[in-house]
Amino acid sequence: MTCSACSSRVEKCVSKLNGVQNVSVNLLTNSMQVEYEEQVLSERQIIDAVVKAGYGASPKSEQSSTQVHQSAHKGAADNPAEREQKQMKMRLIVSFVFLIPLMYVTMGHMIGLPQLPFLQGVENAVSFAFTQFLLCLPIIYVNRKYYSKGFQTLFHLAPNMDSLIAIGSCASLVYGIFAIYRMSYGLGHGDMELVHRYYHDLYFESAAMILALITVGKYLEARSKGKTSEAINKLLDLAPKTAIVERGGREMELPVEQVQTGDIVVVRPGSSIPVDGFIIEGSTSVDEAAITGESIPVQKQVNDTVIAATMNKTGFIRFKATRVGDDTTFSQIIRLVEEASSSKAPIAKIADKIAGIFVPAVMMIAAVTAIVWLMSGASFEFALSCAISVLVISCPCALGLATPVAIMVGTGKGAENGILIKSGEALETAHHIQSVVLDKTGTLTEGKPVVTDVDTTLSMKEFLEIAAGLETRSEHPLAEAILEFTGKQNIIPAAVTDFVSVPGQGIKGKIGDLWYFAGNGRLMEEQGISLDSLENRLNALADEGKTPMLFGNEKGILGIISVADVVKPTSREAVRQLKEQGIEVVMLTGDHKRTAEAIRRQLDIDTVIAEVLPQDKEREIARLQDQGKIVAMIGDGINDAPALARADVGMAIGAGTDVAIESADVVLMKNDLLDAVTAIRLSKAVIRNIKQNLFWAFFYNSLGIPVAAGVFYHAFGWKLNPMIGAAAMSMSSIFVVTNALRLKRFRVSEVSCDDQEAEKTSIKEAVLQSNDKIENENQEVTNMITMKINGMMCPHCQAAVKKTLEAFDGVTADVNLEDKAAYITGDADVEALKKAVTDAGYEVVGIE
What we know:
Layout: H1 4-15, E1 20-26, E2 31-36, H2 43-52, H3 65-74, H4 80-107, H5 125-142, H6 144-155, H7 161-188, H8 192-199, H9 204-227, H10 230-238, E3 242-247, E4 250-255, E5 264-267, E6 276-281, E7 284-287, H11 289-292, E8 298-300, E9 305-306, E10 311-312, E11 317-323, H12 329-342, H13 346-375, H14 380-393, H15 397-416, E12 419-421, H16 424-429, E13 435-439, H17 440-444, E14 445-456, H18 460-471, H19 477-488, E15 497-502, E16 506-511, E17 514-519, H20 521-526, H21 535-543, E18 547-553, E19 556-567, H22 571-580, E20 584-588, H23 593-603, E21 607-609, H24 614-626, E22 631-635, H25 641-646, E23 649-653, H26 658-663, E24 666-668, H27 674-709, H28 713-716, H29 722-741, H30 753-777, E25 784-790, H31 795-805, E26 812-816, E27 821-825, H32 830-839, E28 843-847
Parallel strand pairs: 13-20, 13-22, 20-21, 22-23, 23-24
Antiparallel strand pairs: 1-2, 3-4, 3-5, 5-11, 6-9, 6-11, 7-8, 7-10, 12-24, 14-19, 15-16, 16-17, 17-18, 18-19, 25-27, 25-28, 26-27
Helix pairs in contact: 1-13, 4-5, 4-9, 5-7, 5-9, 6-7, 7-8, 7-9, 7-14, 9-29, 10-15, 12-15, 13-14, 13-15, 14-27, 14-29, 15-27, 15-29, 18-19, 22-27, 27-29
């Protein structure tokens, strides 16, 4: 296929077959996706239909997507794209090797260059013409594909771009041969006037120049196309080719294709992780930039998952393979990007329909042009020149490239930044989004509760010992947050006996001779504990979106520990940017209305719909759609799957789980809401680029055809030489591809440094508020210092400093990479701690 008329023809022929439900032909990737009923139609019949239309076809290789792309990336001999580019380069070289002497012979004398004696003068007219003809033949031969394909499609009554080129250059060539015979006749019969007339009306150079210039455009086009898949190539550079596997008690190096599920894989520092799995031994930091676009390495421990094609930076690990071959996340990404690049946006179908009738229309215009000029008294040579110009300037290459090149660059750019767009249709729909529906837990918030406030009538140490003792045996998610908090304070849990879990209310147990209780207000009321004095405080906490855990004993209330699922640092900026684009932001959550309202106020969200069951989320999406809105749903891709599928565009936030990939249109590999903003902005940029390309292609043809036909010749003297027409046609294709490549400069959405720092500070203050209260109220619980440290560059440094500090008995250290600080609790000597950190290779710049 060479132009959009070709892809339109193939699509039309295949879609006519019984049993075909959907067909999409992509000119850029030379591929076709067909959905059909296997009971009615076979693969062989589909291929026969393509062959009958005048093209070749074969089923896609049985190799995995990764292997196919790797062979393409290496420039393998069996890679059609690489082979075509080499052939195009050879054709280009041969064309210009013979075109330069041809132009010298044809036009050299016009600019005063010396001519060969046997080609000078009217008496040597046949030699002059025949030399041009001989120099033309090699150019015609190497570019014979234009003729074979052009006339073949013409005979099938489905002319394409090659048909226009073939007819245009062939007309010039045939007319030149006719001129040789006429001059030969004139010389033989002494009719020098006849010889002189045809001596100046040779079009061999036009025939050759048309082919050469079209080939220049095609070669540059082929090279530009190669740049569109750079994002995938960057991934493939990191894809491991071999894996070290433990089998039979020894390590062996195998091709990555031979790794099986359940194998124990060994990865040393600096090596790529070959397949997906979970760590069973060791810890390390892993650079996941190839998959998620996140530049900071992620710390991994035992039981953490690792993903194929990511880089093991620091530690030695052994892991069990869970997904291999085409099942790995990496292979799924390659496949998704490939399918998205091959898919067709609705806007492309308009261009295809026009291209299907455009070429026959151009041939009609060329014929009418020639007839009108002949009827108006113009010479045959003038009429022929105008007709040829119309043919060659109208080739719809730019029309066919306008959409697929932009989609391929756009989806590649998304994949480069951890945003997987599954289809051209999703990419186009995203730019129309009017309403974005957000899940709360895990999307707007971290999805993990943390302690934010502690209120108590006891000493802080005593109260936390009681709380830790009760929660140690609880399985509630909030208990984990409380135990994590008390653990950081080095609190020793009180001994609890007769532990009882009260479903829907909380827990209770004995400490000494007294019963102690932890839970909600209903539990306290059933135990006869009055909450009247706490009503204002409980309402205030609820208004802030915090969940209060009440603690009491037989004598009365002891205190409150407040827990909240804190908002992600980037959520506020993401909501702001969505609203800035005129998009309505709706939060959908199963949480209590009061908690949801607190989050709404905190993030300035337009609308909140609370207390919604997972099965009802899909209904809320449908309700918004019934109002005529284009709706995007952003969720974690598991419990939100029905809503994701229902939305016009479903965006799954998370590390690319199977459910997310199946149900969502867009997969955001990082847990960052800003990526959703980026996806919408990318969609708008791609569609804007496509519209620019289509405008250029239509505008160019609309302007070029009348000029080529000589419409303005009498008024302004404008006449287009066929050679100029060919050059202009090539330039239009190059312009379209180059314009699409501008998308590679697209920048992702980011939070400004000041906003990000302010957000982190507010979260940190909320989390550490109780730590400060503990310090102020009871210094005997623990000593806490802040050590400012220079030289920490990555999570490996962070882990090293933490290990160094915690080597001291009784010392717990919370090392923060962004603050360049270690928050240390314990009774160790400060100078000893400082010396240990300095000896480890880091600089202590301050102690508070």
